[in-house]
């Protein structure tokens, strides 16, 4: 089989370098071009020395990148870039996988409110598919544009999907009179590779804090997907915190059950729901997931606890840069290109 | 004024060394003796080199320690030790301050269930006072035995006291049909100075996990105190997590309000409640507390957020070894001895 | 080709788990058995959850392990174990790869002095080969027993080999009247997976210290190999330090040159020496290696600086658990079994 | 006694905040004004929440700060600022303590070469005194301007002073035909509070690297002082490394001895030299200093090892922000103002 020709727009951030790491080991993909306006002319291995000897590639100016000769183009860019280039690329038959938020939120008003920009191509948005393979697989296969799920949303959507689908099917399982609470903690790479005083080691190491308590951009995306699962509007309270780790998201999710809901065997429900998924691991009863158990891998691990009769606590871990971003995007590429979904994604978590 | 004569039983753990650090700087206290069975004969500065030149003290065998000549004896020991020595000491007029759990829980059956031992002196327990100055000041002043509050409980009790006292006074402020949720995160020193594979750096650094999800010993103590504030039983869900920091606890507390409760100005309520407290800092609206802002100091900082009309989110930080243990115990000693409560506790947090 | 049958003795430490991680991804090897006396009956994925779904293997008691049916047996054990089992295994044609020190040091008196035990099979030791592929490749290919290089020694031997071989060939390049100084820093996983108070996070995180200043067990092994390269006794001063990182060794090596030596182009010397090596990367002039650039990979990266005319400073990084131990051992297995040396070792360092 | 009136120019960096922490606890000093051009109007506690309730002070524009009404003005500014303001201040009788490099290096050409700027007041520089109390006490007492020692230099100068003074007195103790090697490691706060990608946690945590290998600005200052001690030019090789800790410097110093030098009892030499110093602690033979043993305190701890007959290894730790900068500057202020040198500097290191 000929290799898939891949282009990357904006490869100098953490999702970019992670795409490079994964694609450099992918047996069926070949990176044809990578853009980086400020870094044009720089060899990728100069910026990311882990790639020395593994990838012979130089950042090029976006205007000179042969993106239209690619089969797939990943956008590892700030919000707003993918939407400005998607029309031209898809017109030429190039699949677009956006790791930013341009194609995640269906409601353009909601998008504008949270991302402070107008959506420039609502028609493409309408056809684009939300990129989360375990919950949107069939729709994704036929898409031309994927708006990949955010890092936090991946943990919370996978953590809640079986439960909310049951609620949708059987009604009255989750008590939606009170919001579902997601208390999430993310390693610092989630904030990106940027010069920001609040992110430097002397500020952020040996420290812990909440942020975005007043509202976080990942909320509308999560409410959209969770409500889709549940068949009704799902109220969600989301409080993100900043962990002094490099990678890793840990979401502690609190769900109030109805009386009917208290009778469900959630352990079995989840094990069945994810039985055939290569990247979702439902831990045995009593297990405690750790972020390091997924470090560098595309796995999500989930544990379930019943605290009081009416309270289900769901613990979910992922590597925010892999399953939360670049890895899930490679998984999506595999899906789009008809490859086995786990191709090139067999990295085992680095532990210790 | 003559200096207070202080004894420390079991000084080789983290609460012990923190007592040493604080008392070595205390202008009105003098450490007369420190016990350490295994370490008898060892100079404290040999074990804790930060004390070199600051404290000329040698661990002595408990059987040889002149504890009965002290004004106050701190127990920085495993659970069960203080109760075995309290009768003899208090009979001689020595005040006992236990940093462990022997005198925290009034119900001996509850104590036995969680700590897997019988209580050996229920009569003393009945007279002992729970040691948390901001909520129990007047009772503490007259006590002979103080069972100092645990590290997590201090954050959660201070984070909820004004609210629950209002609920007690005005009724129907907090919706107690659903449990209050406390999602807490603790730095690793909270697990103590012990040889345990799960605590070594290669396991616990760059990692995050929950633990004690099935039930944690601090729960009964918190329910006891919170219910006392509220005037009725307060249901609490407590999920502790292990942070890869050395010190610091961060509690994110979720409280459902009644319709009446949604009308309360909680910011003012808390500012008024803690206005005169030297060690409780209610942050201005919109602030985000960080664990480093209290590192090494006896401060607790609290921020309040209203997420939905009926959900109050309370963020609380403390240094688990200071306000969560040794510092609060020195504060308690000051109270018992009639000193200004903040004597010797003016350390400013180490930041960065 | 049939898969290589691999046995692992003592798989519950960090070199053991790292062997599991690497071998689980090795296309030509199959782990047949893993021993663990204390952990017999435990599934490896229960201890190391990163292996869930990737390796279906249970620790078995050493007495029941079918080690003699393996092609290769790795010893990830404390010193002294491999030598007790090597005779029986090699007699049955099983290749022995010892990650500990039993077969590193040729002089049994030196071995006894540093490791506090008699060598039980000096005849096997005499035939065993020191396991460091880049410097001992040809001898290794024919060996039955490999005593794999230690973690620190790998950095220092690779950092000095081209220079000392030149010295051997041309004489009078290095001033050996003064010792070569190796100031090395190791991440904490180098101390092993053991319950030791000095290794717990609250002690070792946010801290830095030297250790073994009076003498470290890796010294005799290094002097043996360096002297072999140089054709004369090489005096070495080795000061190890403990880094608050999980993985990674950084060695800063200071070499005094003779006047003749100052004329050498060391950059070219090293680039030529390692041109064809897949796992040794000589960085361009002016580069600064970082431990994270090799995290999780089998690479060594080297940079050279001339500080004064007569002082060469050599900076070397490796991942102590991969190139410093398990990875280099898999590389050795490939060599023994006639596989391309880099089979199964193409992991790219995890960065960030 | 009236309190010393203190001004701080440039208080928003790490040396600034550390001055604030120490001076807020100083019983004899009062901060009158603090400047911060960008931060004018901001309360210091808004930027540094550890100061909430402890310091009621607002950054003011440099043009409006009543610096000339102070007894002492600290410059916690980039290089070049203190020299532009020192003449005016000293003319009005204000003592100037510069934490940057403007008044450290006596040779203006050397200064220009390393700091890329002309010295604007060589006459003041000639009269200024290098600020390192243990080695320059008497000269400092009479100075109007102090150019405080850098963070690395403090460790290396204190680590070598007794030895080099002996060499000066008795000749032929240290073999100065080869350079003294200082392999130093600094916590990341040494790089300052600045927005720099290379300092963010996801880059610098769990990592270790050398930097400034080609030459570091602290070299000329160290050579100047060491040569002063030795009575002859001291060749020095200095290699700094970046530690993934917040605070702390660890210098490993390698000194070659002459044959005569090998006969010296260095342990006694150092213990005698520093016997009366409150902030220099010579550890007992065989001790291993740790950076955490000085975290947050003004102590330097030193250990001495003889590795080979002719090699002395000196290990030195300090907190770079305290003894390496702000603490030593407060110590200098005490000296200038006739106060006991340790006034306000009795913080015990935070351990764990």
Automatic annotation (TrEMBL), chains A, B, C, D:
It catalyses: N-acetyl-L-glutamate 5-semialdehyde + phosphate + NADP(+) = N-acetyl-L-glutamyl 5-phosphate + NADPH + H(+). It comes from the Bacteria. It holds the Pfam family Semialdhyde_dhC_1. One of its GO terms (biological process) is L-arginine biosynthetic process. The gene is argC. SUPFAM superfamilies: Glyceraldehyde-3-phosphate dehydrogenase-like, C-terminal domain, NAD(P)-binding Rossmann-fold domains. Keywords: Amino-acid biosynthesis, Arginine biosynthesis, Cytoplasm, NADP, Oxidoreductase. Catalyzes the NADPH-dependent reduction of N-acetyl-5-glutamyl phosphate to yield N-acetyl-L-glutamate 5-semialdehyde. This is N-acetyl-gamma-glutamyl-phosphate reductase. GO terms for cellular component: cytoplasm. The active site is at residue 151. GO terms for molecular function: N-acetyl-gamma-glutamyl-phosphate reductase activity; NAD binding; NADP+ binding. Its EC number is 1.2.1.38. The keyword NADP applies. Its main location: cytoplasm.
């Amino acid at each position: 089989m000929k290799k898939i020709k891949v282009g990357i727009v904006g490869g100098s951030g953490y999702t970019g370098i992670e795409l490079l790491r994964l694609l450099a080991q992918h047996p069926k993909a070949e990176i044809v071009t990578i853009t980086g306006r400020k870094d044009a002319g720089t060899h990728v291995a100069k910026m990311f020395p882990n790639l020395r000897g593994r990838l012979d590639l130089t950042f090029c100016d976006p205007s000179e990148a042969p993106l239209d000769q690619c089969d797939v183009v990943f956008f590892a860019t700030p919000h707003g870039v993918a939407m400005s280039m998607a029309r031209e690329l898809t017109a030429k038959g190039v699949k677009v996988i956006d790791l930013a938020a341009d194609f995640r939120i269906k409601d353009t008003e909601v998008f504008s409110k949270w991302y402070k920009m107008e959506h420039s191509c609502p028609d493409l948005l309408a056809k684009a598919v939300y990129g989360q393979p375990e919950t949107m697989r069939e729709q994704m296969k036929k898409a031309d544009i994927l708006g990949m799920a955010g890092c936090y949303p991946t943990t919370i959507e996978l953590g809640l999907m079986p439960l909310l689908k049951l609620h949708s099917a059987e009604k009255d399982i989750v008590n939606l009179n009170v919001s579902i609470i997601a208390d999430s903690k993310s390693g610092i790479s989630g904030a990106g590779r940027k010069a920001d005083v609040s992110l430097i080691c002397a500020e952020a190491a040996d420290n812990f804090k909440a942020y975005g308590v007043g509202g976080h951009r990942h909320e509308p995306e999560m409410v959209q997907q969770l409500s889709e699962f549940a068949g009704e509007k799902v109220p969600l309270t989301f409080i993100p915190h900043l962990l002094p780790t490099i990678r890793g998201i840990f979401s502690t999710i609190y769900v109030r059950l109805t009386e009917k809901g208290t009778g469900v065997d959630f352990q079995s429900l989840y094990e069945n729901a994810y039985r055939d998924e290569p990247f979702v691991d439902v831990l045995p009863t009593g297990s405690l997931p750790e972020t390091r158990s997924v470090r560098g891998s595309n796995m999500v691990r989930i544990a379930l606890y019943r605290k009081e009769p009416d309270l289900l606590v769901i613990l979910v871990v992922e590597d925010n840069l892999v399953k939360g971003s670049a890895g899930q995007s490679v998984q999506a590429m595999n899906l789009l290109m008809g490859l086995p979904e786990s191709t090139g994604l067999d990295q085992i978590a680095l532990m210790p």
